[in-house]
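Tutorial, part two.
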Amino acid sequence: MTTWKTVGDAGEDFRTAVRAQPGWYWLLRPHQEGPGRYDGATPVVCPIHVFADGRVSSPLADLRSLGEDQLSPRDARGVRFPSYFAGPIRPGRSSGGLRVERTSDGHRMEGEFPSVPGWYWCRTNSEAPLLHVDEEAIGPIYLAREAGGSIHVWSTATLDGQPIDVGELGFSEPLTSEGGVIDQSGELGRVAVEFFGALEVPPSPPAPLWREDIPERPPRLQLTEGRTTLRVADLARARAFYEKLGFVVRATRPEEGWAELRGGGLELRLVTGRGAALHFTSNAEARAALQGLGLDPEADPEGLVLTDPDGHRIVIRAPT
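Running the prediction step on this input gives:
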């Protein structure tokens, strides 16, 4: 049985795998509930196809390339959600199909529809292909039969086998007729579908799937906005200073002379070199908070001014 593997913090493990062997892969990631919002309690699974030239065919709106921000997305708080992958996987042999024959009084179905819900490979007639397919026009669909007999077609599901809507199905209506992917209305000309056997989803990976490695707590100054790069003379010394203010290191490579930190909604990159300035907004109690940390900010027309060990001016203004 194929098992799940992490794509790597920056997606490097998955990119290495697909360069060596392009094709279909299972992908597991948290359900995206909106821009910058992921539900780590709901793992979403779907097959994606990576072509030899690096193009990605995916039903997920936030997965259109092999970039780090798409393979290992961050939410609005900066929490990283690395994906998992399994594969490669391949369509099996043809295992039957369906065809619609239109008659003077309607239509009649020929063939057989899979009786067991789950993942299936399929290919429709060339006049109305599915949108999420490979070079052979074969693509994956998740079939779920409703209590009334109607068959719903999905492009993603949860690990426990429940279909889930990600808002980017990649199919055209109608898809909920008794024929499923067959277009009984005649609007699309999708009159035939061929099935290539079922897909078996890999087993669940060990829990927890996603560890929120950046604390929810804001930095001690309750800073609310800011994003910048600071050049520092001593990376370790600068890190210690900003960690004292409540920033959390999310990535660092001392041998390359950089570190990325985050505090609340603030993103800060430290690199060795020359100095810069930094402007933030904070709460009205900023002076007391700084003095409580053993720091003595200066008053300035712009607000409070703090100087870090490399001479950077940190200007802290009251929120407007």
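The longest helix spans residues 235-244. In part three we will examine how such features are distributed along the chain.
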